[in-house]
Request: fold
Amino acid sequence: ISSDIRVHPGMDFYEQDEKDRWVKRGRYPVMLARVVDASGVPVTLHRTYLTPEGEKAPFDKVKKQMKGVRKLAGDAIRLVKNPESRTLGLTEGIETGIAVATGYSFTINVWSMLNCANLALTQIPPGRFDKIIIFADHDELDVKNAYRPGEHYAGLLKARLEQEGYEVEIKVPPKVGTDFADVWVEYFQAKSIRLKVASGRS
Reply:
């Protein structure tokens, strides 16, 4: 994982009460992520509040993005920087990006785009990559818009990048309502069970 991901041992966590007042709920470890533009210039910071054990903090909204210098416009968290690889993997969430990076043994570059709308706006440095793999979330159907957001925005990005000359592939998890972080957890759990069974037989 690149140095654009850091850990802070304890930051104050605030949330709004029923009267819309900001109330401090304690201090929690935080995963800090730096968001940069296509030139590598920082745009904002993203925070994920955790428990000391590494789970998400016990609140509804543990992911908070700082205001930054402007709104996101295709900016990314560069999770894996592999100068030898000409392939770039794109995900929405940070955890999904880490799962993809782990699955590929950190042999490809991986960026988190934070959300599907920003994914569609991804800005890529000219001449750096040849192939782009979009690891789309397999979202539930958005009935109002008649599409699945993850795949819809991934398709928009694919069309644009192909026009720009990139080789582009979209990968989607088989189960509705999952992303590749879920796929990795399921694989890891299944592998752990197989190892326990094999150990018991021996």
Summary: Residues 109 and 170 are 16 Å apart (CA to CA).
